[in-house]
Amino acid sequence: MDKCLECQAEFDNEVELHRHLRSHKLKIEDYYFKHFPRFDKSDGSLIRFKSKQFYFTHDFNTRTNFRRWLSKQDNATLRAYCIDFLKRRKEYKKLTYAPCQVELRSLECLSIIGLNKIFKDSDYYKIAFQLGYIVQHEPLHLAYPSSLVYEPKDGIIWIDTREQNPLTFQVFSQLTTLSVGDYAFGTQDKKLPVVFERKSISDFISSFGRDYERVKKEMKRGVATGAYIVVIVECDMKYALVFNYLPSLPQNIQVTPEFVFHNVRECCQEFPSVQFLFVKNRLEASRLIEKIFLSKGDLTRFDLQLAYDMNLI
Question: pTM for this structure?
Answer without folding.
Answer: 0.89
